[in-house]
Amino acid sequence: QVYLEESGGGLVQPGGSLRLSCAPSMIIASIDSAEWHRQAPGKESELVAGITSDGSTNYADSVKGRFMISRDSAENTVYLQMNSLKPDDTAVYSCHVLGKTTRHYDFSAWGEGTQVTVSS
Fold it and tell me: How far is it, in rounded angstroms, from Cα 58 to Cα 107?
């Protein structure tokens, strides 16, 4: 079973930046698509950004122009660069990946989440 390991969360002041990373716990063949979701206390989970196999991206209106999702195909790692962070961005961020194992089985995996806190 494929697990995802996220890193890069933390405490940052408003206007600051963070880069989140999401990588599989084992060697895989490929990532087909990936998404970052977030959930703030008392709120529903929100899709923040997504990237497809051809590199197409989509973003929630609330983060357009500030966040950028990307992928490193060689390392099979997905990133979320977050700039101009606001207190409203405070949430637990989780990645979701669809891909193929080295035995060419399809998999769907979620990370456990990493806390991002934007506060002065």
Answer: 22
Distance CA 119, CA 56 (A): 32
* Structure tokens belonging to residue 27: 């060697």
Tens of pLDDT along 48-105?
A: 999 998 999 999 999 999 999 999 988 899 999 999 999 999 999 999 999 999 998 9
Non-local CB neighbours of 56 within 8 Å, separated by 6+ positions: none
Q: To the nearest 10°, report the CA torsion of 80, 82, 59, 46.
A: 90
Whether 82 and 89 have beta carbons less than 8 Å apart is answered as yes
